[in-house]
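Your task
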Amino acid sequence: MALREIIVIPDTRLKLVSEPVAGVDAAVRKLADDMLETMYEAPGIGLAAIQIAVPKRIFTIDLARKEEPKAPIVLINPEITWTSDELSVYEEGCLSIPEYYEAVERPAKCMVRYLDLEGKTVEMMCEGLLATCVQHEFDHLNGVLFIDHLSRLKRDRVMKKYAKAAKREATA
Protein backbone atom coordinates (compact mmCIF):
# COMPACT_ATOMS: atom_id res chain seq x y z
CA MET A 1 0.00 0.00 0.00
CA ALA A 2 1.16 3.50 -0.76
CA LEU A 3 -0.18 6.96 -0.18
CA ARG A 4 -0.97 8.84 -3.37
CA GLU A 5 -1.25 12.57 -3.93
CA ILE A 6 -4.82 13.84 -4.19
CA ILE A 7 -5.21 16.37 -6.99
CA VAL A 8 -7.32 19.46 -6.27
CA ILE A 9 -9.21 22.02 -8.32
CA PRO A 10 -8.46 23.77 -10.63
CA ASP A 11 -6.54 20.67 -11.91
CA THR A 12 -8.20 19.94 -15.28
CA ARG A 13 -7.70 16.17 -14.91
CA LEU A 14 -10.66 16.20 -12.51
CA LYS A 15 -12.89 16.94 -15.53
CA LEU A 16 -11.75 13.84 -17.45
CA VAL A 17 -14.17 10.98 -18.11
CA SER A 18 -12.56 7.86 -16.66
CA GLU A 19 -11.95 4.73 -18.74
CA PRO A 20 -13.40 1.32 -17.81
CA VAL A 21 -11.13 -1.10 -15.95
CA ALA A 22 -10.24 -3.90 -18.40
CA GLY A 23 -10.15 -6.63 -15.77
CA VAL A 24 -9.66 -7.13 -12.07
CA ASP A 25 -6.05 -8.16 -11.55
CA ALA A 26 -3.20 -7.59 -9.09
CA ALA A 27 -2.59 -4.06 -10.44
CA VAL A 28 -6.25 -3.09 -9.86
CA ARG A 29 -6.18 -4.57 -6.35
CA LYS A 30 -2.97 -2.60 -5.62
CA LEU A 31 -4.63 0.58 -6.92
CA ALA A 32 -7.64 -0.10 -4.65
CA ASP A 33 -5.33 -0.63 -1.64
CA ASP A 34 -3.49 2.63 -2.39
CA MET A 35 -6.82 4.45 -2.77
CA LEU A 36 -8.11 3.14 0.56
CA GLU A 37 -4.89 4.10 2.36
CA THR A 38 -5.00 7.58 0.77
CA MET A 39 -8.71 8.01 1.60
CA TYR A 40 -8.22 6.98 5.25
CA GLU A 41 -5.18 9.24 5.66
CA ALA A 42 -6.92 12.29 4.13
CA PRO A 43 -9.35 11.54 5.96
CA GLY A 44 -12.38 10.99 3.75
CA ILE A 45 -15.30 8.62 3.20
CA GLY A 46 -14.90 8.23 -0.57
CA LEU A 47 -12.21 8.51 -3.24
CA ALA A 48 -12.37 8.08 -7.01
CA ALA A 49 -9.24 6.99 -8.90
CA ILE A 50 -9.26 10.21 -10.94
CA GLN A 51 -8.66 12.10 -7.68
CA ILE A 52 -5.21 10.50 -7.57
CA ALA A 53 -4.76 11.22 -11.30
CA VAL A 54 -5.68 7.70 -12.46
CA PRO A 55 -8.51 7.99 -15.03
CA LYS A 56 -10.02 4.55 -14.33
CA ARG A 57 -13.62 3.74 -13.36
CA ILE A 58 -13.00 2.70 -9.76
CA PHE A 59 -13.83 4.27 -6.42
CA THR A 60 -13.62 3.41 -2.74
CA ILE A 61 -16.04 4.16 0.09
CA ASP A 62 -16.01 3.58 3.83
CA LEU A 63 -18.75 5.14 5.96
CA ALA A 64 -17.60 3.56 9.25
CA ARG A 65 -17.12 6.05 12.07
CA LYS A 66 -13.70 6.33 13.73
CA GLU A 67 -14.72 4.13 16.67
CA GLU A 68 -16.15 1.42 14.36
CA PRO A 69 -14.17 -1.23 12.48
CA LYS A 70 -13.30 -0.26 8.90
CA ALA A 71 -15.89 -1.33 6.30
CA PRO A 72 -14.32 -0.56 2.91
CA ILE A 73 -16.22 -1.00 -0.34
CA VAL A 74 -14.39 -1.00 -3.67
CA LEU A 75 -16.56 -0.40 -6.74
CA ILE A 76 -15.02 -1.22 -10.12
CA ASN A 77 -16.77 -0.15 -13.35
CA PRO A 78 -19.87 0.93 -11.39
CA GLU A 79 -23.16 1.71 -13.08
CA ILE A 80 -26.05 3.42 -11.35
CA THR A 81 -29.01 1.41 -12.65
CA TRP A 82 -31.83 3.17 -10.76
CA THR A 83 -32.46 6.30 -8.73
CA SER A 84 -35.49 7.21 -6.64
CA ASP A 85 -37.76 10.15 -7.40
CA GLU A 86 -37.50 11.05 -3.71
CA LEU A 87 -34.66 13.50 -3.09
CA SER A 88 -32.48 14.19 -0.07
CA VAL A 89 -30.03 16.93 0.81
CA TYR A 90 -26.63 16.31 2.40
CA GLU A 91 -23.81 18.70 3.08
CA GLU A 92 -21.09 17.39 0.80
CA GLY A 93 -17.37 17.95 0.78
CA CYS A 94 -14.64 16.63 -1.48
CA LEU A 95 -10.99 15.75 -0.97
CA SER A 96 -10.28 17.53 -4.28
CA ILE A 97 -11.95 20.71 -2.97
CA PRO A 98 -10.46 20.89 0.54
CA GLU A 99 -12.34 22.59 3.35
CA TYR A 100 -15.39 23.53 1.25
CA TYR A 101 -18.82 22.10 2.08
CA GLU A 102 -22.21 22.81 0.57
CA ALA A 103 -25.70 21.29 0.62
CA VAL A 104 -26.40 19.20 -2.49
CA GLU A 105 -29.71 17.62 -3.48
CA ARG A 106 -29.57 14.13 -5.00
CA PRO A 107 -31.86 11.10 -5.27
CA ALA A 108 -32.39 9.64 -1.78
CA LYS A 109 -31.85 6.06 -3.01
CA CYS A 110 -30.00 4.39 -5.86
CA MET A 111 -29.11 0.95 -7.13
CA VAL A 112 -25.51 0.40 -8.22
CA ARG A 113 -24.00 -2.55 -10.10
CA TYR A 114 -20.23 -3.01 -9.99
CA LEU A 115 -17.38 -5.51 -9.95
CA ASP A 116 -15.78 -6.33 -6.60
CA LEU A 117 -12.08 -7.10 -6.04
CA GLU A 118 -12.72 -10.72 -7.06
CA GLY A 119 -14.20 -9.60 -10.39
CA LYS A 120 -17.70 -10.69 -9.36
CA THR A 121 -20.74 -8.59 -10.27
CA VAL A 122 -22.47 -7.10 -7.23
CA GLU A 123 -25.73 -5.14 -7.03
CA MET A 124 -26.23 -2.90 -4.04
CA MET A 125 -29.24 -0.85 -2.98
CA CYS A 126 -28.07 2.39 -1.40
CA GLU A 127 -29.90 4.92 0.71
CA GLY A 128 -29.04 7.80 3.00
CA LEU A 129 -25.39 8.81 3.16
CA LEU A 130 -24.32 5.74 1.18
CA ALA A 131 -26.55 6.77 -1.76
CA THR A 132 -25.13 10.29 -1.65
CA CYS A 133 -21.56 9.04 -1.48
CA VAL A 134 -22.01 6.54 -4.35
CA GLN A 135 -23.53 9.26 -6.56
CA HIS A 136 -20.81 11.77 -5.59
CA GLU A 137 -17.99 9.33 -6.43
CA PHE A 138 -19.78 8.12 -9.58
CA ASP A 139 -19.94 11.75 -10.75
CA HIS A 140 -16.13 11.92 -10.47
CA LEU A 141 -15.86 9.09 -13.01
CA ASN A 142 -17.71 11.32 -15.49
CA GLY A 143 -15.71 14.47 -14.78
CA VAL A 144 -18.43 16.01 -12.60
CA LEU A 145 -17.66 17.64 -9.26
CA PHE A 146 -20.19 18.22 -6.49
CA ILE A 147 -19.86 21.96 -7.06
CA ASP A 148 -21.28 21.38 -10.56
CA HIS A 149 -24.62 20.74 -8.79
CA LEU A 150 -24.54 24.24 -7.24
CA SER A 151 -25.65 27.54 -8.70
CA ARG A 152 -23.30 29.08 -11.27
CA LEU A 153 -22.52 31.93 -8.85
CA LYS A 154 -21.44 29.59 -6.01
CA ARG A 155 -19.46 27.36 -8.39
CA ASP A 156 -17.65 30.33 -9.97
CA ARG A 157 -16.79 31.72 -6.52
CA VAL A 158 -15.28 28.40 -5.43
CA MET A 159 -13.31 27.99 -8.66
CA LYS A 160 -11.89 31.53 -8.40
CA LYS A 161 -10.84 30.96 -4.79
CA TYR A 162 -8.96 27.75 -5.62
CA ALA A 163 -7.47 29.18 -8.84
CA LYS A 164 -6.02 32.09 -6.81
CA ALA A 165 -4.64 29.66 -4.21
CA ALA A 166 -3.04 27.53 -6.96
CA LYS A 167 -1.48 30.63 -8.50
CA ARG A 168 -0.05 31.67 -5.11
CA GLU A 169 1.41 28.18 -4.60
CA ALA A 170 2.97 28.18 -8.08
CA THR A 171 4.75 31.49 -7.44
CA ALA A 172 5.85 30.63 -3.89
Q: What stands out?
A: The beta strands are 46-48, 58-61, 73-83, 87-94, 97-107, 109-115, 121-127. The radius of gyration is 16 Å.
